[in-house]
Amino acid sequence: MEERLFFYELMHWFSLNRRNDPWSGTSDPYPVWISEIMLQQTVVSAATPYFMAWMSRFPTFSHVAFAPEEEILRLWEGLGYYSRARNIRRTALILVSEGRRTLPSTYRELCSLPGIGNNTARAILSLAFGQKYPVLDANVRKIFMRIFLEEEWTKETAARTDRFIREGMKHYHPGRVNEALMQFGQSVCLRKKARCTVCPLSCCCEAYRSGREDSIPPAAVKKVTRKKTVLLIPAWQKTLGILKREEGIGRGLWTFPGLSYERGKACLDLLQEKRSADIFPLKREIHTYT
Question: Which CATH number fits domain 132-222: 3.90.1530.10, 2.60.40.420, 1.10.1670.10, 3.40.640.10?
């Protein structure tokens, strides 16, 4: 495949369709880092208002380091995966203790910091420092599995994709290449109903040529595990009973008491037997929990 044709078409598409996110176009490692962490497991539209609020309250990582954890978690509330916010604070504390004014500019140093893994380090190095580090996230993997007609993402596929993207980075800014690929995967090369008829890269795509774009990558088999939990909302006069979680998911957050189904049912049975409290069942609700 001709790499130059691929990247010419990709970057031409990007110049016409680039999405101007609040973190786009900056070479400051701090907002790049925060945006990349927020975009883990979170769509752009949901992360954007949180990013704006975060940067307003914490314009530098020094502000994060000196803020109490509870305030940071409160600002993160609703994004889910709260360990991300805790790791940002842990990293900020490390950077301040080392007297740094910016994030490290080497892959090894970045990956040694809490919450910064392979793809996050690559994104920071390319977007903020202009270094040739391809980001092989889910969007990029999906594109190249179709381009190369690969049914599985293997070490060999990853190495081939890495080499291919690095060739493009010889001619275009590494950060812009990564940004273009990620946005292309989000808006054109969709997992379901890929927009092949308007895709400028269809001339390079083996999956499209063979009519297999809908089956590559193959759909993941989801295993559903049912878990029952009893949620208690203790209320007396105009007061509600809440507690602060000290461990596990939601550590540091205030919540209503939650029990396993067995313990919760036993508790309710005891209350009913002793008639020590009035019990009012809540109506059925469906929640998305991350």
Answer: 1.10.1670.10
CA distances from 248 to 76, 187, 251 (A): 17, 36, 6
pLDDT by residue (tens digit) across 77-89?
999 899 999 999 9
Radius of gyration of the chain (CA): 24
**252, 245 in Cβ contact below 8 A?**
yes
Separation between Cα atoms, residue 135 and residue 60, nearest integer Å: 25
pLDDT digits (tens, 9 = 90+) for 245-280: 777 666 777 777 777 778 877 887 777 777 767 777
CB count within 10 Å of CB 280 equals 7
* Cα–Cα distance measured from residue 157 to residue 131, given in angstroms and rounded to the nearest whole number: 22
Alpha carbon distance 282, 225 (integer Å): 23
pTM above the 0.85 mark?
Answer: no
CB burial string 75-97: b at 16+ within 10 A, e below: bbeebebbebbbbbbbbbbebbe
Catalogue the active-site residues: 36
* Whole-angstrom distance, CA of residue 121 vs CA of residue 108: 9
- Helix then strand then coil, % of the chain, to nearest 5: 50, 5, 45
Please give the Cα distance from 134 to 194 (Å, whole number).
23
